[in-house]
Amino acid sequence: MKKLHVGAVAAATGVAVVLTGCASGSGGDASTDGKPTIVVDMWAGSEDDTTALEKQVAIAQEENPEVVVKLQTAPWNDFFTKLTTNMASGNMACVTGMSGAQLGGFTDGFRELTTDDLEAAGLDFADFNPGAEGILSFEGGLYGVPFDVATMLVYYNQDMLTASGAASPEIGWTFDDFEDIATAATTDGKYGFGMGMGGYQWMSMPIAYSGKQPASEDGTLHIDDADFVDAASWYSGLVTDLGVAAPVASASDTGWGENQYTGGNAAMAVDGTWNAVSYLNNESGFAAGMAPLPTGDHGNSGPILGSGYGISKTCDHPEEALKVMGSLLGKDAQDYIASSGRSYPARTESQPLYFDSIDEQYREQVKTVFESAFETTVPLYMTKNWEKLDSYIQPNLVSVYNGQMEMSDLLESAQTQFGN
Amino acid sequence: MTITTKRRGSLARSEARQALGFASPALVGLALFTIVPVGLSIVMSVYDWPTFGDRTFNGVDNYATLFTSSPDFWPALRNSAVYTLLYVPLSIALSLVLAIGLGPRIRGRGALRVLFFIPVVVPMVANVLVWKMMLQPQGLFNGLAQSWFGVTLPNFLADPSWAMIMVVAMSVWQGLGYNMLIFSAALEQLPESVLEAASIDGARGFRLIWSVMIPMISPSIFFATIMTMITALQVFAQPQLLTGGGPGNATKPLVMFIWEQGFTFGDLGLAAAAAWILFAIIIVITGVQFAAQRKWVHYEH
């Protein structure tokens, strides 16, 4: 019987080893018919997304007949988990999609792009939206080139503003205007503004107010900078001092401000340009509008955000991969992204096509607001431990908004814990 | 005689081989999804093991880091302890009261039991949504308090002193039906003759419950206590969904800390070490409970 036990364990281990071996893949990109295969890995949540990506990949294939371009996709929620696994096992696709917000945790997997690399890809940041080079940059290194750009806007419920007699936000409005509108719209148990809990949603107003960022380009944290602290304290004061926003109910309400806005409980909220179309066609049926972030004493410096492609460090054919990436970010592919209305393209000459895809009734508003907002955007700098900082600040914001903690104490404590 | 023994021996071997054949898929599953991960997590806990990049052996450094320099570990340990100390006695006591209350004299007790069991089978996300709608400042409780009594209630889930109480309250409500069912089943099994004898001896009401019924169902109470304690120490979904571990880290239990270290911060070594500390705590407390059971659990009727 002892022999049998040993045999059973050996058999089980053998099968386990075989299965584990099967799961780990070959690593790198295989060759097909003598042509190198360049895998493009990107998130896609629906058939439409996949079809759109297939069209872009077809453009890249046509422009690069010397390689076989292969697309692989995963839904947004799974993409970064799969990417982590692929990176850990050395199977990261040669051309990999990346969002500016997530880059900090994945720089180890990406090749740092040089001027020669950009030249090999046929890409020049002069053709892209100003500030686009900062989107997939981290601590001074460039890890990718964006295919779309985004920034933060103030969205407003025109019906609520009209009913309360408040003015509407306009291009060029100031923080004083913002306070006046928020105060006038706070009536009948409704509030003028929905407080942001997400990193971009809460941070972009203090950045615009003070003209300061919580980190420098080289990845140094200075979230306790006096001007930024003052601006952030003004922001939390919208609940605690001015009373124009509701206190947040729970730290798990990560989309509090945006939900308050879509639910008709708040007249204004800050969110990204990526939600512009869905807010205009909102399910609640209210007339929605949008405006750039208010202008502070230092101008209007909203953060520029976006997603793009980078080359994996482990890619066996980096030269070919760079060319494929160049095609995916080239004029034809960018024109396609813009004219299908999927997102606001990073390449400047393709941007007008995006507005043509918007419903005619909203087209002019979206066009003028986008153009104005993107004119003054600045790259958002982050630190290596940004995730930890974010996960420390967010649950404490609830206490700040509820008046149980001072914003200055929170930011100073964050600096002590996460400063370099 | 010798021939018969040999035949039996060969039969046993052949049956054992067949049994092994049938069991092998389960063994492979056990090896792949239990033994290998458990073994790997022990190894991980003594390594600096980032999600990607080089892994380096660091002995007991992860354990030392947790106890000496990790700002969230002690609060998480405290939160798990507070949650367990509040949740287990409350859940056991209330389930017992409910099970006894829904005794044979209650009409429609089957339907009532189903009602109390519904929160157990309803997905946690739905339960949490309902509780959030009741507890938030614009929610049901505050609305009623303001309109009926003119009193403004605290922002329960955002107040550090209330948040944990609300997580416990919601968890007790959610898990009440499970233990109630165990106790109800045990109460149904009580021999009529013993209850009758106790009643003839003059035991009534609380005396009957305390001196006769509870000692007789003590094995069920012991089982429920052990299982409830283990699930309480492993709590994750309730605070994650209801309070996000906040405000600050006021409701972040040990499992949420482990999850955050492993999957948000990518420090698998530290997460594995914290998981083994949790394992050790559960084993020790369960061991103590088993040792203590001799004094209060009665297995013979």
From TrEMBL, chain A:
PROSITE patterns: PROKAR_LIPOPROTEIN. GO terms for cellular component: cell envelope. Keywords: Signal, Transport. InterPro entries: Bact_solute-bd_prot1, SBP. It is found in: Cell envelope. The lineage of its organism: Bacteria, Bacillati, Actinomycetota, Actinomycetes, Micrococcales. SUPFAM superfamilies: Periplasmic binding protein-like II. Belongs to the bacterial solute-binding protein 1 family. Signal peptide: none annotated. This is Sugar ABC transporter substrate-binding protein. It comes from Microbacterium sp. LWS13-1.2.
UniProtKB/TrEMBL annotation, chain B:
Keywords: Cell membrane, Membrane, Transmembrane, Transmembrane helix, Transport. Pfam families: BPD_transp_1 (PF00528). GO terms for cellular component: plasma membrane. Gene3D superfamilies: MetI-like. It is a multi-pass membrane protein. The keyword Repeat does not apply. Residues 77-289 form the ABC transmembrane type-1 domain. It comes from the Bacteria. InterPro entries: ABC_transporter_permease, MetI-like, MetI-like_sf. The chain crosses the membrane at residues 20-47, 81-102, 114-134, 162-187, 208-237, 268-292. Its main location: membrane. It is found in: Cell membrane. GO terms for biological process: transmembrane transport. Belongs to the binding-protein-dependent transport system permease family. This is Sugar ABC transporter permease.
